[in-house]
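As a next step, the fold was encoded as tokens, giving this record:
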Amino acid sequence: YEAPGMALLHITYERLVNAIHNEDTVASYHNDGRKLGRLMYEGRWLDPQSLMLREALQRWVGSAITGEVTLRLRRGDDYTILNTEGPNLSYHPEKLSMERTVGAAFGPVDRIGQLTMRNLDIADSRQRLEQYAAMGLVGGATAELVGQLERGGAEEIADAVGGISEDADELGLSAAFDAGTD
């Protein structure tokens, strides 16, 4: 039952899944993966729910996975992830900086973590849709729902913080404090 090569592939694949997809997509991936695993264990490979789960996992999660993971291996199950690189990573350090406030909609004293990460989550979802459209995966009812997906929309969402006056922002903070909603 030992398969060290498969164990290494699993480690690197999971690292890329977590680096490329957002938290909610990864949670769905794990839940659907467990369901699919159970159905396969029961010998229900070609049941409609198995086909549905497998198609969703391959099409919407697996197709976006590409990159490189560098591991340092030691004896036994001991390893260290040294580096993760790829063209579609969602979690770049420059996106996640709490110190970067030039042109940001919120400063460090605000709820920057939750608000900025939510905006980045939306931008990441848009980037993933753009990637799927470029691969020809978005069609039918999904294409009608999302419309034309031109590249660059994700950057517009992530960078949409212009036009905020520092004075107006300060007044908003004061009003929130006075109203007890800070």
